[in-house]
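Example record used in the benchmark description.
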Amino acid sequence: MMSHGVFIKYPDMKTLFKLVPSSKKGKKWDATSGEILPETAALHFISLEELVFTEKIDGTNMGIRVTDGVVSHIQKREHICVREDKGDAFYFEIGESVTGVIENQKIEQLQNVIIYGELCGEKIQKGGNYFKGRKFIVFDIYDTVTNRFLTWDAVRHFTGELGFETAPEINYNKEDLKVHNVKDFVLAQKSVFNPNSDAEGLVIRHRKDTLPVRRWMAKIRKKDFIY
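Model output (C-alpha cells):
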C-alpha cells in the first residue's frame, strides 16, 4: 500500500432541521423548533418511498482510496493516515484487512474510487456497545473519475460483492418528516447492532443521489432532541 492519490474529504453532512442553541452559552443545540434548512429542504418534499433511512453509527470517518485497482491510501476525516501516528493504528488494522479483498476482486467499477465508511467498535467512541472488535461499515462510494457518488443501490451492490457491510437500513415507520414524528422515532430508536443499546441517530438520503455538493442527504441525532 503506497501513500498517493489526492485526499478528498467526505462532505460535511447537514442536519435535517436547523439546530438552535438550547443553552445561553450555546454549547448544546436542539432541533425541536422544526425549522427546515435550505440545504436539506428537498428531503421534506420527497415521498418517503424514495428515501433511504440508515442508522447513524457512532464511530469515526474512514476512507479507502483505490487508484487503478490498488489501494493507494487510507484516510481519516481530515487527512491521509500515516504509520508513524499511533492514533492511526486502528485505521491500518482495518484497512489492511480489507485491502486484499478489494485488490483481489478487481471489480471494474471500483478501480478508481474512495470507499467511505465508519470505523467503529471497541475503543472507538461508544462503538463498544455495538459488538466486540472493530469493523469498517461502508456508507458511500465516490467515483474519482466521474466525480460523483454511486447511488445507494450501487453502494449496496458493490459492497455486497466485496463481502463488506453497509450502514444498516432501518424502517422509518412515521408518515412524514415533521419534527414531532422524527423526534419520537429517534428518541425511541435502538441500534441494529444491539437492541439493548440506543442508536446515535439516523441518516436520510435520496436513493438515487449522486451529486458531491448540495447532496440530498441529512443526519439527525438523538442528542439534537435532548436538552
